[in-house]
Amino acid sequence: MGGSIGRRCVMCFAVTAAVLQLAVVAPAGAQDNEIQAEYHVKRGRIFFKDSQYAEAISEFDSAYALNPNYEYLPDIAKIHEALKNYGRAIDAYEAYLRKGARQLRAAERKNAKAEIKRLRREMKGAANKGLARKHYEAGYKYNEKGKLGLALIEFERAYQLTHDPAYLYNIGTVHIGNGDTGLAAEAFRQFLDESGAKIPAADRAEIEQKIAQLEGSQTPAPVPAKPEVRESIRRLNGGVPQPQPGAPRPVVPGEPAEPGGRVWTWVFFGIGGAAAIGAGITGSLALTKEKDVRSKCNGITCPESTIDDINAIQTLGPLTDVLIGVAAAGVLAGVVAYFVEDDGESATTVALTPSSAGGGVVTVGGRF
Q1: Run of H or E including 351
Q2: Alpha-carbon gap, residue 368 to 353, rounded angstroms
Q3: Are 275 and 330 in contact (CB under 8 A)?
Q4: 177 CB neighbour count, 10 Å cutoff
Q5: Under DSSP, is residue 59 helix (H, G, I), strand (E, B) or coil?
Q6: Does residue 53 register a pLDDT over 90?
Q7: Neighbour tally for 143: CB within 10 Å
Q8: What distances in angstroms separate CA 151 from CA 143, 164, 170, 175, 192, one per listed residue?
């Protein structure tokens, strides 16, 4: 009986030792994870300080996977914000509030909620910037085509979305093209006011001179900025070139609007040549199909498989005849036009000249 009790004691001792060993090992493993997590956190903060945001978020993700400590979440949110991942930054702050609900002080909760609110505004602003950029690009294209009314609408929409003063310069430029000197001066002045110190003193003086010219002029005329002023505006607008006022291509009085030549001669020859090529193609197809039909037919009877080819021959034959006729007529008309048509040396001259009335009006004159 004593031996049985002794054996039981030995077994109890062994079980107790195993339980104690497990109790010691578990915290040791968790402690190792915390140490490794802190190592990743330190590396992540160094990367963040050096603006290496992709590397920083990778380190913090590794840290959080090892030790899901809610205290890491504000750092994760800041890195996502730097990466313009506003949605993920908001998610990180919301997780911070949930996981640290019992530990966070009132001031910390208040700051986290304020950050969430700010990030939501940033996210909306980023979406507006993207939409404004699309309106700007559309306005730029309209301005290049001389469609100043549409260009003005697009530039104004871009400004309303972001209130970026760079768009005001574009608006003023289009007003000049439209002859609205008062509105142009107002847009340029607002551009200077809202840009503040972003505009160098020399460029500011140049634009102020432009405003004075616009306010004192009776006949609106484009006042181009100097290259260095345009470069300053280009930098403000994210490196995109600024549109200049739309204007028709200058045509020198007495210069032909378009080079002359035997236009109709070449038109008729072209029609005739195209018809001749088409006739050659359809004729060749008709002859090929006719040869195939003859090879398959036995005297008067033909197999059903040749019906489609016979129908095609009946279509291609007349079509070939028509194309041959068109080709002949085109060549004949081209020959006649060659002797009748002017060769362009004494072509009609049309010139566009600005009207003395100013604005966007042009007059047409010339020799006939």
Answers
A1: strand 349-354
A2: 17
A3: yes
A4: 21
A5: helix
A6: yes
A7: 24
A8: 5, 17, 9, 10, 21
Give yes or no for a contact between 116 and 93, defined as CB atoms under 8 angstroms apart. Answer: yes
Q: In 3D, which of 199, 244, 243 has the Cα closest to residue 224?
A: 244
Q: What is the pLDDT of residues 68-115, one digit of tens each?
A: 999 999 999 999 999 989 889 999 999 999 999 999 999 999 999 999
The per-residue pLDDT for range 108-125, each reduced to its tens digit, is 999 999 999 998 988 888
User: CB–CB of 145/246 below 8 Å?
Assistant: yes
72, 59 contact by CB (below 8 A): no
203 has a pLDDT exceeding 70? yes
Tokens of 265: 């001669």
Domain assignments of the chain as residue spans, ordered by start: 20-104, 165-236, 263-289+308-338
Q: Around 226, how many Cα atoms within 13 Å sit in the side-chain half-sphere?
A: 11
More confident of the two residues 330 and 64: 64
| Six token digits for residue 340 | 């009748």
d(CA 365, CA 349): 8
User: In DSSP terms, which residues pair with 365 in a beta bridge?
Assistant: 351
Name the superfamily (CATH) of residues 20-104. Answer: Tetratricopeptide repeat domain (1.25.40.10)
Coil, strand or helix at 347: coil
Tokens at 226, concatenated: 């100097």
Given a contact cutoff of 8 angstroms between Cβ atoms, the answer to whether 327 and 275 are in contact is yes
CA separation, residue 68 to residues 23, 87, 259 (Å): 21, 20, 77
How far apart CA 205 and CA 184 sit, in angstroms, is 16
DSSP state of 218: S
pTM: 0.39
Contact 236, 198 (CB under 8 A): yes
* Res. 10: pLDDT tops 50: no
User: Residue type for 196, please?
Assistant: G
Cα–Cα distances in Å, from 172 out to 74, 191, 242?
A: 44, 9, 11
Is residue 213 within 8 A of residue 223, CB to CB? The reply is yes
Both tokens assigned to 205: 């003086």
**Could you report the per-residue pLDDT of 297-347, keeping only the tens digit for each?**
665 566 667 677 777 777 877 888 888 888 888 788 877 777 766 554 444
